[in-house]
What does this fold into?
Amino acid sequence: MAEISRLDDLRRRVGKDPTSIAFAQLAEEYRRAGQTQEAVDVCRAGLAIHPGYLSARVTLGRALLELNDLAAARTELEQVLKSAPENLAAIRGLAEIHHRSGNLPQALAQYRAALSLAKNDPDLEQTVEELTRELAPKAAPETAPIAPAPVMRVVEVPDEAPPPAADEARESARAVAARTIAALEQFLAAVHVARADRLA
It folds into this structure.
């Protein structure tokens, strides 16, 4: 009942004075009560009048995150961090956006930044440990042993290879022919000598 009366009270205050900064409290109460779209609507209306109200912009970013509008939530939270780099709620929200988007290295960096501001936060510590393990380089799988390269046998080739069999046969025929011619010449010379002896 107290929450309902507080919501009613804040609604009345903002209704009476639409320029009141109480819109930021009203939006946060809506968000906590699970009325996320109402929180977004109230934040946007109030930020149109008070654009520099950072806590309202954080509430808007967190409400958009709960609606799974990650791109719009990121825009709001990054704008907060430009003015307040150590805003813990904005850092945590941005970490969750990166985590949901699958950008784990950036998510881990943001969670670590949040943990440096909220030391000993058990939820943050657990998330940082889990992401650190998940992003640790995997051990290279064992490779099969490489078989040694086959040994290449080098065969030495002599400078002058012996003539093939056909060349040997030709050389042998030439030698026989030369011997035959020499024998014929000797025979003819003997005939010539014998004739000369008869005529003498």
Summary: The mean pLDDT is 83. The chain has three domains: 1-84, 86-136, 168-200. DSSP finds nine helices and no strands in the chain. Residues 168-200 form one domain.
